[in-house]
Amino acid sequence: MNQVEILREWVLNSNNIVFFGGAGVSTESNIPDFRSVDGLYNQEYAYPPETILSHSFYQRHTDEFYRFYKKKMIFKEAKPNAAHLALARLEEQGKLKAVITQNIDGLHQMAGSREVLELHGSVHRNYCTRCGKFYDADYILESKGIPLCECGGIIKPDVVLYEEGLDYGTMQKAISYIAAADVLIIGGTSLTVYPAAGLVDYYRGRKLVLINKGATPMDSRADLVIAEPIGKTLQIFLE
């Protein structure tokens, strides 16, 4: 049996699967990942993207932050790919209990997934820092300069910037799902960003699957490693 056939077998025989994914899940939807050769972090800007996407930069240079954010972080034309659609189908079949994602693009929900834990927030939620009113991504894109609320307050994306902590409730829920999972599938992530990457430590089962084009620090701990694009691999669950 090859690796993909083993994956199919494990999925067929489980009703307690959890998926944990990163930027690589969305690259097949033409959203650049952060650390590949062609990724967002290898392009040239006046400041490194890590600096621009930090809390302190957002506070000190809000206009510059938004110039970058509107152009490089919101992909309105992106559509779910085979990976998103396959995961939604597995949830519909009662096999997949939750999707835990580091992505902020909302493509899992667009594909039909219901239980999606967004560790880093979403570009589709933006809130006024003065009155708390929420705005969608279109409002941000259509605004000129710094997006302002009708009350005059500055609107901030509901995404976790560098220097900001992850939401405690979301992390606890993710830990619970992973700790109870029979099969844990990790895909499209280099597993180098903490604290998110540390979630793997809570898995207690013996069916840890890593699907990623490149090697990860966790490969030696995995029970099954598939070095292929995530969409190509999960396509089998749409056939």
From TrEMBL:
Catalytic activity entry: N(6)-acetyl-L-lysyl-[protein] + NAD(+) + H2O = 2''-O-acetyl-ADP-D-ribose + nicotinamide + L-lysyl-[protein]
Name of protein: NAD-dependent protein deacetylase
Organism: Fusibacillus kribbianus
One Pfam family this sequence matches: SIR2
UniProt-annotated binding residues for NAD(+): A23, T27, F34, R35, Q102, I104, D105, H120, T189, S190, N212, G214, I230
GO molecular function: histone deacetylase activity, NAD-dependent; NAD+ binding; zinc ion binding
Location of the Deacetylase sirtuin-type domain: 1-239
Cofactor mode of binding and number, as noted: Binds 1 zinc ion per subunit.
Transmembrane portions of the chain: none
Residues the entry annotates as binding Zn(2+): C128, C131, C149, C151
Active site residues according to the UniProt entry: H120 (proton acceptor)
Lineage: Bacteria, Bacillati, Bacillota, Clostridia, Lachnospirales
Alphabetically ordered keywords of this record: Acyltransferase, Cytoplasm, Metal-binding, NAD, Transferase, Zinc
Main location: cytoplasm
Residues given in the record as nicotinamide binding sites: F34, I104, D105
